[in-house]
Design goal:
Layout (H helix, E strand, L loop, with lengths): L20 E2 L1 H20 L3 E5 L2 E4 L11 E5 L2 E5 L5 E7 L6 E4 L8 E3 L4 H16 L1
Antiparallel strand pairs: 1-4, 2-5, 3-4, 5-6, 6-7, 7-8
Length: 134
């Protein structure tokens, strides 16, 4: 089964591009974990995409590369309703490996879900969607 991933490009300074700096290996590992949640959401008919951000620092003096320094940021999954409004944002904790589920505007602090429970993440997002439908 192939999962289509949309990549977003952000202009410097946009808040979505300000995830924590990470290594390529960690970003790949988080991407695989988020793909599991994305597949579960797709099976329930929920639209989502994973955001991959890279920060480019341009114009450094003495740098050999024309693009300057690149910094990978932690990927995150965004689930949205049929009108395109963001319902949830899911990231993976860099140390714990747990899912961090933010449900705006209801929750101020992200909810922590164990790494071995992607179905619980899906249930939180489905509950948020049903609240919005009311």
């Amino acid at each position: 089964m192939t999962i289509k991933r949309e990549k977003a490009v952000f202009i410097a300074g946009e808040t979505e591009a300000r995830g924590a700096p990470t290594t390529d290996a960690t970003a790949e590992r988080h991407d695989k974990v988020l793909a599991v949640v994305q597949r579960l959401l797709r099976e329930k008919g929920v639209r989502s995409y994973v955001v991959h951000a890279v920060t480019l620092k341009l114009g450094e003096t003495g740098d050999r590369w024309p693009l300057g320094r690149q910094t990978r940021r932690t990927p995150h999954l965004v689930a949205h309703d049929l009108d395109g409004r963001e319902v949830a944002k899911v990231t993976v904790g860099s140390r714990s490996g747990c899912y961090l589920v933010s449900l705006p505007p209801v929750e101020l602090m992200p909810q922590l879900v164990n790494a071995d429970q992607p179905h619980a993440v899906m249930d939180l997002i489905l509950a948020a969607l049903s609240k919005e439908a009311k």
